[in-house]
Design goal:
Immunoglobulin-like, 182 residues, cytochrome-c oxidase activity, alpha+beta, Helix Hairpins, Cupredoxin, mitochondrion, two-stranded antiparallel ribbon
Amino acid sequence: MSTLAALNFQNAASPLMEQLIFFHDHSMTILILIITIVSYNIISTYTNTNIDQHMLESQPLELFWTIVPSFILVFIGLPSIRLLYLLDEVYQPSITIKTIGHQWYWSYEYSDFLNLEFDSYMIPSNESTNSNFRLLDVDNRTVIPFNTQVRTLISAADVLHSWTVPALGVKADAVPGRLNQV
């Protein structure tokens, strides 16, 4: 469980979340490098009183700062596209869970089994104990198998909802009339 003082991601509970964290670190390293170089150039330009006339109108320099950002975008874009395809792919799931968002609760239905469905209500604040997470614990938790492919079909009955499990790297919007798959 994440706390308010946490500066990093939660521990990954799936290989896809590990890949998302690696991509985040990869892109942040590139961004910090770019910010450092640009800051150094701005400070050195501000403090330097000698201005070279050839540097102000340099076509090779303009070519350099046009081509280098395009390579940087490719260096960030290719892993991002690969990760998007990995996140969207469902490999022969062992179980399918249908999730329907309602105004104040979620309904879950295990489609592979007969008549196995339940509603999950949030535990009221006056009934919660110190061991519960405030506004996060529910009366009926969804149980999913470990180390297997699980397909979740997400929809809503009335309004927009957001269904997420941060440790798995899963987040989907529940939209009335639309069936989202994760």
